[in-house]
Amino acid sequence: MNRYFDNGSTSFPKPSQVADAIHHYLTHMGGTYGRSAYQRVYEATAMVETCRDALAHRMGTARAENIAFCSNATMAINTVIKGLPLTGKRVWVSPLEHNAVMRPLWELAKHGIINIHTLPAWPDGTININALSNIDLSNTGLIVVNHQSNVNGIIQPVETIAQWAGKVPLLVDGSQSVGHLPIHLDQWGIDYFAFTGHKGLLGPSGTGGFFAKHPETLVPLIHGGTGSRSDSYDMPLDVPDRFQAGTPNITGICGLLAALQHFPQPRHTHADLLHLMNAIAQLPGYKVWGANNPIEQGALFSITHHRMTPSDMADKLYRHFGIEVRQGLHCAPAAHRHLGSFPNGTLRIAPSPYHTSDDLEFLLKSLTELSSIQ
Length: 374
Fold this sequence. Notes:
Blueprint: H1 16-29, H2 39-58, E1 67-70, H3 73-83, E2 89-93, H4 99-109, E3 114-118, E4 140-146, H5 158-165, E5 170-173, H6 185-188, E6 192-196, E7 208-212, H7 250-261, H8 270-282, E8 286-289, E9 301-305, H9 310-321, E10 326-328, H10 333-339, E11 346-349, H11 357-370
Helix pairs in contact: 1-7, 2-7, 3-4, 8-11
Cofactor: pyridoxal 5'-phosphate
Pfam families: Aminotran_5
Family: Belongs to the class-V pyridoxal-phosphate-dependent aminotransferase family.
């Protein structure tokens, strides 16, 4: 029985090949990336580039070199936000943004560098596409949209938003969507796309990065050695080196490649997830926080109970049933303010491809019994 439902925080379990690949790198390969000319380095460099190519294929872009590795999506988002010329500009955001977006933006706003505005949205946080035509995009430097909410799992129509944005740069936070949803960066016309490796892609923590359609527009966040153009103190203009100062997390990237190459077939369907949500909504005292339109429902959702706080629920689920979930604000207070679940937050349920319909039924049965536990 798989009782781990906190895959919105980090995925577990990983494919067994992830640990095998990491062990092989640490015990047999051991070389660094792009720095020297011997077999171990060749193998490590080839492995990193193979992972980059696999990510490009997974995210629907023919420009693998425009994908830069970072330690996580937070660094990727900071690189884009702080690398663009935003002084005196407006920045539009969805109402469901994570603090990985809101904190760097707030840091700029409180020093008078930018002005933050919120895009019009429906009660579940989905952008109101019809209302976008009323927005004046003049003097707008950036639009930021969370592809899949980490609170209620709604999927934003990023392709339509990209069409509306036109020449205004669009940054999509794909932390919760990549690995769960089809991604078509080139087809959608996305300017910047941040991702992490340890959630939906089932890779190790400490992996992630971003795609930049126009990398020449970004000033690097981190400066240092790249193993290339070492005769100059300026960061190289070549991508991805321009954004990969320092030794990359080769161990983690090795594990991420293994996850991409051995990604499991889902053991439950989207219909199973919707059935679980509907069944919980019928239980006395429970409220389900998800998309109003089932088509826009992603791979996670939240619940609350009128008599128990999310913290109480999480504690009882773990102590009495061994179920592991995330409770609270999920680092997204803006989302909870918009949805109406602030300040206590919610209890988040985030399955992985490894969950079966029986696992989902066990969770439902546990929630049914939870109300009677003192």
